[in-house]
Write a structure and sequence with these properties.
Elements (H helix, E strand, L loop, with lengths): L3 H5 L7 H15 L7 H17 L2 H9 L15 H11 L18 E7 L3 H4 L1 E12 L15 E2 L8 E8 L2 E8 L8 E2 L12 E12 L8 E4 L15 E7 L6 E3 L2 E9 H6 L1 E7 L2 E7 L8 E4 L15 E8 L6 H14 L13 H11 L1
Parallel strand pairs: 1-9, 11-15
Antiparallel strand pairs: 2-7, 3-6, 4-5, 8-9, 10-11, 12-13, 14-15
Helix pairs in contact: 2-3
């Protein structure tokens, strides 16, 4: 790499004004508007970069010292070379053993909430979802550089990514190390960033991802899709995508574990005499027998018509709570028939018994205890 002082044509002892004058003279000579040649353009870039470094007092000092200044040379404090070896061994001073850090970083995980219907989780479903995430920049393919260019070695830390300084202490000069402020510890700088991603190696975009939602999932379950999250900086590996499931409310059926629950309204006459009815469930029709004398809050169980188990095999059951309905309006003929029925049965007079819970409370207790 060319020496910045040689590029500007000044001595290492040159003042800031002398550096500025040299830069102005070369800039007028090499500026692309004046000298359109390719060689002049490259030299103009070198001159500009050299001036940027040497015109800043702190960067010039770091450039003059170099990335790894030794214990010798100024500062006094006696000969503590052996102490330098000790600190290097025990405290990580001296030579930088870690090296520059990589621009490539793993991307962040992403979380997307997906709503599904109750009937979709009985057997599982496939869904295409759209997510807004970071994807690889197609212009630079993750290099962060404009096409045809590449990163260059940082001339402050000489590619090490670290700046080391000698700090005085009671034991003499102790070497400390910190990330280079010019390249931010990468060891390289990007003079020509990609115009599409602004030197990030990734852009935000909307993409469609096919998703297999397994049977038996419930609200709150998170599904992990490895490497489907955010692409990392500089084309680093993608994070994971998590799908958080929410099952939509259903007007008829509810869920209790792997069982489906529903309530069936039965007319008083059907409850007395018994009947058979066909019910439409989430995955087809089922035939249900109402035995004679059925009471409110009884539960009819239809085996293997519930939700497919997420872990294991088989399905839960469909549990139907019965609600016997009493007619509120009867015609004259119906009233006479009911009176004849009551007279024929000669039931006992109404008596007080223990307080009974409401129908829905009884149904709930039976659903949970069956």
């Amino acid at each position: 790499m060319a020496d910045h002082y040689e590029v500007l044509g000044v001595e290492r002892t040159a003042t800031t004004d002398e550096i500025k004058k040299a830069y102005r003279r070369l800039a007028r000579e090499l500026h692309p508007d004046v000298n359109p040649g390719a060689d002049a353009s490259e030299r103009f870039k070198l001159v500009t970069h050299a001036y940027d470094v040497l015109a800043d007092p702190q960067q010039r000092q770091q450039y003059d010292i170099g990335p790894q200044a030794g214990f010798g040379g100024g500062g006094g404090g006696g000969n503590f070379g052996n102490f330098g070896d000790i600190f290097e061994t025990f405290f990580g001073g001296g030579q930088n053993t870690r090296g520059p850090r990589s621009r490539r970083e793993r991307g962040q995980d992403a979380l997307v909430r997906v709503e599904v219907d109750l009937d979709e989780i009985i057997f599982g479903t496939n869904r295409d979802i759209e997510v807004d995430t970071a994807v690889l920049c197609e212009t630079c393919e993750g290099s962060c550089c404009a096409p045809g260019t590449q990163p260059v070695t940082c001339d402050i830390c000489r590619g090490s990514g670290q700046i080391q300084r000698a700090v005085r202490s009671l034991l003499g000069n102790v070497m400390t190390s910190s990330p280079c402020g010019t390249c931010r510890g990468y060891g390289t700088v990007i003079p020509n960033p990609c115009p599409t991603c602004q030197g990030q190696g990734r852009v935000r975009a909307r993409r469609t991802i096919p998703v297999d939602i397994p049977a038996g999932v419930d609200t709150g379950v998170r599904l992990q899709m490895p490497s489907q999250g955010e692409v990392g900086q500089a084309g680093g590996p993608a994070g994971d995508l998590y799908l958080e499931i929410k099952v939509r409310h259903h007007d008829v059926f509810s869920r209790n574990g792997d069982d489906l629950l529903a309530t069936l309204e039965v007319q008083m006459t059907d409850a007395i005499l018994g009947t058979t009815t066909t019910l439409k469930t989430l995955d087809g029709e089922v035939s249900v027998d109402i035995h004679p004398g059925t009471q409110s809050a009884e539960v009819i169980t239809v085996k293997d018509r519930g939700v497919t188990r997420l872990r294991g095999s088989g399905r839960g059951d469909l549990k139907i709570g019965v609600q016997v309905t009493t007619p509120t309006k009867l015609g004259h003929k119906e009233q006479e028939l009911i009176k004849q029925f009551a007279s024929a049965r000669k039931p006992a007079a109404p008596t007080l018994t223990h307080f009974q819970q409401g129908l829905f409370q009884k149904l709930r207790d039976r659903f949970l205890n069956i």
